[in-house]
Design brief:
Two copies of one chain form a homodimer. The first copy, chain A, has ten helices and eleven strands. The first copy, chain A, has 227 residues and is an alpha+beta fold. In chain A, strand 6 and strand 7 form a beta hairpin. The structure holds a DNA duplex (30 and 30 nucleotides).
DNA sequence: GCGATGGTTCGGTCTCCACCGAACTGTCAT
DNA sequence: ATGACAGTTCGGTGGAGACCGAACCATCGC
């Protein structure tokens, strides 16, 4: 009984329709801007701002400033599971969602996340590069080692210059572990598309790993995917 | 977004500290009286009454009238899971609970529920008696057949007379299937204790199945438990 | 019958909070 | 610089609801 106040506080946050709509809009793991969430919540931007402040304060959401935009996303997979379990009790239809979407198998296997690779493939690449000592991911950024730069140059995926962050871990909503975002992630993805290792599928963010890609990922990264 | 109002309504119910305390008190699957819940919630009985009405109205709790008492319990295992997932996010210590209590293995195996047997043993006994055509359980009561009376007489567990309900299914919170309550359940449990088939453990409602009991349950009921 | 006890309903108070209009800060573009 | 846009802070309003005192209904025990 001692720490029930804490769960009541969390539940109360979800107990407001506007905030519930916000959480629902984020349930698929995307990161959305405050304005989009205001639209989803069907309340004014000012009100939304207050809601978002409370939700991030309570660590249900995380923010990511990017220029004049602020991107909000679910703080952890636990939060998504919580929402789903409440939906189950509320008798709501569980929409396409991170953990429980039967038709999402291709998406979980490999997909694009903005302009970089995600899903099992994205996480596997991040793991491979980390394990070989090419990159070092930390919560607030990522470093590329000397050997890593050589490897990337050789692979043909050297990121260009730009003011965008160079390398950043991005929490993968289906795998719940980080994959590589930033200029490096974009360069890697771009090179994989150029090599014909992966191919976009129609009307979806899922990507297919081609036969050539299968051997290529295995040879260059030691990555083999069952799917 | 369409059915988010429903989840907001559920969450709002849990968002009140008093109601959260009530739910927490019921989290272990027991059925408690309104007055006990008022104490747990730390509010007056009148206020508690209102809360309980709302919670049952929303199908988070079920009531069971018994004389002038009303016993409340969680409406379904889904509700318990929901509470636990919220606790996980809220960072609260998860107390002994139905689905996720590592130390509860003995309790899940065999325990007393008021004065009758529950857990895997209790459910197995109910199944055995049902399958052999000795009893027939229905949601609102239970019947004992001719053969069943003979069996019980032979076993030495014929229930005495009394105004208490004779035979009633009682939803087992760990097995999520009914075991036998009522005078019949009490008589069965009493006989099992007398025969030395089961023994109470200190400071807990868990009971141990003795070696004699193991062979006895197998011989008379065809019941064998792995634990 | 009687009082005692568990539980509910009613009425009124009081606090909390979602909401928006208006004004403000900061970033991007030209 | 200037305007456009994203987002926040502030102040005030209105409604929802948690709470309890008091009265009421039902059941139990004698």
């Amino acid at each position: 009984m001692s720490d029930m106040p804490r769960v009541a506080a969390v539940a109360a946050l979800l107990g407001d329709p506007a905030r519930a709509n916000i959480m629902n809009a984020l349930l698929d793991g995307r990161a959305l801007m405050a304005k989009e969430l205001a639209f989803a919540a069907r309340v004014s931007p000012q009100t939304t701002s207050g809601h978002l402040a409370k939700l991030t304060q309570a660590a249900l959401l995380t923010v990511e400033q990017q220029g004049r935009h602020r991107y909000f996303r679910l703080a952890s997979p636990l939060v998504g599971q919580m929402l789903e379990s409440i939906m189950a009790v509320a008798g709501a239809e569980t929409p396409r969602t991170a953990t429980s979407w039967k038709g999402g198998e291709p998406l979980r296997n490999a997909r694009t996340c903005y302009d970089h690779l995600a899903g099992r493939l994205g996480v596997a690449l991040a793991d491979a590069l980390t394990q070989r000592g090419y990159i070092a991911l930390s919560p607030d950024g990522g470093e590329v080692t000397e050997a890593g730069h050589a490897f990337l140059r050789d692979f043909g995926a050297e990121p260009g210059l730009g003011k965008r962050v160079f390398c950043r871990p991005c929490l993968d909503w289906s795998e719940r572990r980080p994959h590589i975002a930033g200029r490096l992630g974009a360069a890697l993805a771009c090179r994989c598309f150029d090599l014909g290792w992966v191919a976009r599928l129609r009307d979806t963010r899922a990507v297919a790993i081609t036969p050539i890609g299968r051997t290529g990922f295995a040879a260059r990264f030691g990555v083999t995917l069952s799917g």
